[in-house]
């Protein structure tokens, strides 16, 4: 396979077989990394828990010290990799996708892998979707950097890895695709959709081969409602919207209050609080669905469910705000489940089968709270639908998600928790529309390969310029240390008849870059050209002029 043609095809903005192939490769790579991550968590969980199946089986003293041991392990990893590389999770990945084409620093990946595994295995109220997104983006772009593909395609590959990571972690390929489009990229384009769908499918297939095809919420059975209960779902959504606003504001408040405290102190404080609450209420530890399954199967009292809900709320805010590596959507799902069951309890006054509604309302609570916290209503709907392996809850979920989202955004002015975290960390996550458009096309797709390099100022290309106006002549000059290039062309003047030989200095742009870098060089003067090089500036492979860039922009706008 001709690698140069392969790169050139990936540099274009559109669907291609090459992009689909890289989506499969990157998705497979990301899925294998997530499978290794899940196996590591299982191994650490067995090491920390021993023969105990749940946190209830552990002694209160052991439950208190377990998060402290986990925090010390997290700190040890951070010390080895360097505290400056302790940025991770979904907000960080969104920032890297928007401004660095999805390139993830290697040391942050190590921090996320080991730190996230220790955090989840030691009972912190964090989810595995944060590490899955981070690790998926990092693993998927490995081959892109190794093959030195255009940066516009590497950004898409990072989305493929994120989708594959979520799909491999939760066995939810459709929800993974929607999450990438709705939360990370914030756009729906067919040429992006296709490779991301393939990557998500690869993630799901591989995880089913290793862990089986069961879904995390397959133990919950959805029961149909009578007509009047649909009205109650709107009230459920309104409550969840208010709860989401309270959750986001509480988390950001704790982050602001403890931002100036040393990270070592913050992590140990989170461990002590987690251990203390776990000492009293072991059901609040962790963020898996096992505790929720146990509570639902045992028909636990409403008082106990309220206590677990409050404890889980506090532990999640403390863990995420104080810097424990992990995701927040896992615990948000669990909080939503308990909220749904608690809010289904009053229906017992009006119906005799209220207990059958607990499972249905737990699913609706998950969807409504996620939609309002993350501002991803479609991802919430699809995630709950796939996790429960049923499509019967589509209509009731819409009746919950819409009022939850509207209440959160319009009544309480609540922004997505990821956006609030990015603002707090001063990480940019938006770019101008022009830059966004230019970054979707690589320089290889627009450059002209019809050029000739002259090595002496005495060379007179006038005759050749007149005979070959489509050829670009570049003059190579040595200034004693480095080689510089000038673009030599004929300027016909205003009358169109007289012509003079003009030489303009050129800047070089590496072949992996996008048109955004070319635009940044040429936009001020609205004229000139750049040369495209591979490996070293002496290895020129093409030329892009302002005129050719303008034509591309005009064509792309239509």
Features:
single chain; 558 residues; alpha/beta; 6-stranded mixed β-sheet; 8% strand
Overall mean pLDDT stands at 86
Largest sheet: 6 strands, mixed
Order of helices and strands: HHHHHHHHHHHHHHHHHHHEHEEEHEEH
Overall geometric form:
elongated
Could you give the order of strands across the largest sheet? Answer: 1-2-3-4-5-6
Distance between the termini: 33 Å
Overall strand count: 6
Stretches where pLDDT is under 50 for at least 5 consecutive residues are none
β content, as a range?
5-15%
Helicity, as a percent range: 55-70%
- Number of helical elements: 22
Q: How would you classify the helix and strand content by structural class? A: alpha/beta
Backbone CA Rg: 28 Å
């Amino acid at each position: 396979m001709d690698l140069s043609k392969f790169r050139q095809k990936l540099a274009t903005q559109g669907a291609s077989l090459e992009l689909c192939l890289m989506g499969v490769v990157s998705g497979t790579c990301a899925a294998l990394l997530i499978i290794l991550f899940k196996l590591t968590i299982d191994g650490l969980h067995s090491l920390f828990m021993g023969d105990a199946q749940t946190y209830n089986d552990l002694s209160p003293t052991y439950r208190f010290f377990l998060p402290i041991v986990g925090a010390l392990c997290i700190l040890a990893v951070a010390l080895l990799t360097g505290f400056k590389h302790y940025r991770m999770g979904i907000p960080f990945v969104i920032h890297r996708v928007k401004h660095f084409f999805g390139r993830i620093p290697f040391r942050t990946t190590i921090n996320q892998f080991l730190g996230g595994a220790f955090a989840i295995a030691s009972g912190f109220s964090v989810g595995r979707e944060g590490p899955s997104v981070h690790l998926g983006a990092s693993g998927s772009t490995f081959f892109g950097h190794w093959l030195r593909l255009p940066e516009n395609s590497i950004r898409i590959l990072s989305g493929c890895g994120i989708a594959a990571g979520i799909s491999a972690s939760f066995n939810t390929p459709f929800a993974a695709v929607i999450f990438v489009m709705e939360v990370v990229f914030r756009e729906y384009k067919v040429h992006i959709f296709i490779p991301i769908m393939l990557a998500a499918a690869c993630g799901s297939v591989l995880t089913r081969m290793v862990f089986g095809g069961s879904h995390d919420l397959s133990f919950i059975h959805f029961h149909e409602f009578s007509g009047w209960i649909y009205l109650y779902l709107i009230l459920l959504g309104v409550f969840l919207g208010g709860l989401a606003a309270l959750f986001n504001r509480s988390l950001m408040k704790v982050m602001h209050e403890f931002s100036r405290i040393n990270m070592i102190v913050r992590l140990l404080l989170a461990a002590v609080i987690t251990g203390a609450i776990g000492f009293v209420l072991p059901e609040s530890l962790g963020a898996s669905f096992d505790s929720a399954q146990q509570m639902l199967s045992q028909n636990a009292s409403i008082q106990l469910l309220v206590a677990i809900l409050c404890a889980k709320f506090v532990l999640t805010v403390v863990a995420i705000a104080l810097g424990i590596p992990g995701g927040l959507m896992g615990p948000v799902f669990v909080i939503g489940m308990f909220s749904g069951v608690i809010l289904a309890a009053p229906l017992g006054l009006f119906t005799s089968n209220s207990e059958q509604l607990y499972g249905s309302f737990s699913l609706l609570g998950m969807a409504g709270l996620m939609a309002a916290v993350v501002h991803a209503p479609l991802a919430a709907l699809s995630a709950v639908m796939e996790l429960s392996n049923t499509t019967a809850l589509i209509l009731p979920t819409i009746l919950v998600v819409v009022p939850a989202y509207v209440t959160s955004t319009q009544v309480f002015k609540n922004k997505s928790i990821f956006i609030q975290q990015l603002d707090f960390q001063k990480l940019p996550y938006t770019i101008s529309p022009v830059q966004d458009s230019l970054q979707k096309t690589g320089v290889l797709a627009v450059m002209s390969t019809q050029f000739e390099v002259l090595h002496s100022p005495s060379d007179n290309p006038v005759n050749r310029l007149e005979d070959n106006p489509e050829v670009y002549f570049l003059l190579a000059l040595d200034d004693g240390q480095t080689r510089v290039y000038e673009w030599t062309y004929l300027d016909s003047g205003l009358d169109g008849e007289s012509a003079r030989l003009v030489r303009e200095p050129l800047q070089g742009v590496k072949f992996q870059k996008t048109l955004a870098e070319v635009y940044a060089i040429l936009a001020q003067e609205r004229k000139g050209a750049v040369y495209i090089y591979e490996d070293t500036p002496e290895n020129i492979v093409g030329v892009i002029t302002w005129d050719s860039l303008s034509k591309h922009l005009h064509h792309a706008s239509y």
